[in-house]
Amino acid sequence: MQRIPEVAAAQVLVSLRQGNLSAAAHLVQTHDLPISQARVYLAQGDALTALAVLEPLRQQMEAKAWQDELLNVMVLQAVALHAHGEKDKAVQLLGEALALAEPGGFIRIFVDEGPPMAALLREAAKLGIAPNYVRQLLAAFGKAEGRTSVTQLLIEPLSERELEVLRLLRTDLNGPEIAQQLIVSLNTLHTHTNNIFKKLGVNNRREAVRRAEELDLL
User: Fold this and answer.
1) For 167-207, how does the pLDDT look when each residue is reduced to its tens digit (9 = 90+)?
2) 58-117 confidence digits (pLDDT tens)
3) CA torsion angle for 98, 104, 105, 109 (degrees, to 10)?
4) Which residue stretches of 84-204 are H helix?
5) How far does CA 87 lie from the centroid of its chain?
6) Mean pLDDT for the chain?
7) Could you give phi then psi for residue 122, rounded to 5 degrees?
8) How far apart are CA 145 and CA 106, in angstroms?
């Protein structure tokens, strides 16, 4: 069950994208997810509280030299600073995050922040910060924005719920654990899974994940 916090954090992202603040808030209350908590504060328009959550967390990650976790915090801090009206600080911090991320070729960590991060990256591009990497990231944003047209290539597009199930199918969780995370019965999960298989034209979980990756649905 080590992946439960990771799965819950992914569910917070899904809920926020769907505009379901109550579901996201419930998840961060149920699990110890400080970064997700900051996301919820941002979604509620409270950038100052989000920053208050993130600063000590950043110090903790720096002290432990946890680079990947530190990068997560820095990226969200940049978004929060921008939302709080501190544009210059936001771009400066984004530059630091880009320098940390570029050697590892991180993409999703930026794309997951959506339009606010795309706007910040465009500001970084104007200033000539990590130009090649920033161009790569902005291209990834364009690809993400085109996912809707990609899903239209399917006979029948996946619903938001089916996409959520698909993301969980990509994890190491088994069927009962996924059903528990979604708060649905195993029969309901089987129905969703069968619909996903049918729409993607596959016969099993592994094929579904591979096909979804080919279509850039994950």
Assistant:
1) 999 999 999 999 999 998 999 999 999 989 888 878 899 98
2) 999 999 988 888 999 999 999 999 999 999 999 999 999 999 999 988 888 898 888 899
3) -70
4) 87-101, 108-111, 115-126, 131-145, 147-151, 160-169, 175-182, 186-200
5) 22
6) 87
7) -65, -35
8) 18
Higher pLDDT, 50 or 13: 50
Q: Report the CATH fold assignment for 153-214.
A: Arc Repressor Mutant, subunit A (1.10.10)
Rg (CA), the chain: 18
Distance between CA atoms of residues 121 and 25, nearest Å: 28
Domain 4-145 has CATH 1.25.40.10: yes
Amino acid present at 16: L
The H-or-E segment that residue 157 falls in is none
Q: What percent of the chain is modeled with pLDDT above 90? A: 52
Structure tokens of 135?
């161009």
68: its two tokens? 């990947």
Look up tokens 């992914």; give the residue: 10
CATH 1.25.40.10 residue window(s) in the chain: 4-145
